[in-house]
Amino acid sequence: MLLLRWNLMPVRHLCLLACLLYIAPELSAQRPRPAVHVIATGGTISNLGSGARRTGEELIRGIPGLDTTFAVTVEQFSNVASGSITTEHWMALARRIDELFRTRPDLRGVVVTHGTDTMEETAFFLDLTVGSCRPVVLTGAMRRAVDIGAEGPANLYNSIRLAASPSARGRGTMVLLNDEIHAARFVTKANTSRLDAFASPDAGPLGVTDPDTLVFHQPPSRSCGTRTAQAPTFDMKSVGTLPRADIVYSYIGADSVTVNALVNAGARGLVLASVGRGGMTPGQAAAVRRGVDRGVLVIMSSRTGSGRVPLNEQEGLKDWSPGRGAILGAEDLNPQKARILLMLALARTQDPREIARYFRRP
Ligand code: DAS
What we know:
Rossmann fold, binds D-aspartic acid, alpha/beta, 4-stranded parallel beta sheet, single chain, 8-stranded mixed beta sheet
């Protein structure tokens, strides 16, 4: 009897193995594929030359076999060069992504295709206004869809991999091009045409997309645990319109004309792309002081491309009284990102002491 049992064991195992082999493909076919939503806004990734552009649907169809691994849905938000993206686009995009995360619990993440020229700005705006623990990934291409060696499909595929990955949770909004993952706060476009145009000069990339896996060099910036929601820095539900804020470039011989004109045009905030760590010409400095007297909030950033301009809160606020503006440093934000934070902060408060809080390094 015992002998018979021992002999039967391998037969049982063989049956089990055969059954598993038979049903395994069925099981994997039924296993839910990670859901990612793609929002197409235009840019070089969709550019076919002579004014024609691919739709988001066409971009997705250009990636063979995508639907065997991922459940991708797509919508066309706009189809424009990124120089035509407006602050109204930003607000609508942030609200749309917020709605998606609220209504689609199945979604692992959102990918936004976007022109590269202003991608860092849209990415930073979304980083400040979308509160989810699920990732938002911006991607695009340096080469048009019709160019030889167009890298758009690879960037889009890698972005979908990133958005679907559990390891992307708690990292806010990211930018992915050329196999590199960057944090929205630090990334900048640093070259006009090369494939490695995107860099994070002060922090380095967050990670890379290797062919077999995603590799992160830095931990997530948001502590999310298993939560899906997290309050954004600025909730778009309470932001109506963004006040006017402009950027003024500093250079040898720059006079007061630009600053005066912008203050007269109603700018409530100015960002100075200073010559170094907060320096500007005497003509600009005099105009800035007059602007501060009239209530303008001035943020000193730098044209150098990396490094900090210290917030300098104590000095900047020591003469402050209600109705006056102030001069503060942008820390590590480049001028275009400092302007975004300034606009959002000014939409909430006029008080420079509160605005300084937003500019403190996280
Ligand atoms: N460089 C592209 C962009 O940023 C321009 C284009 O596609 O027309 O949108």
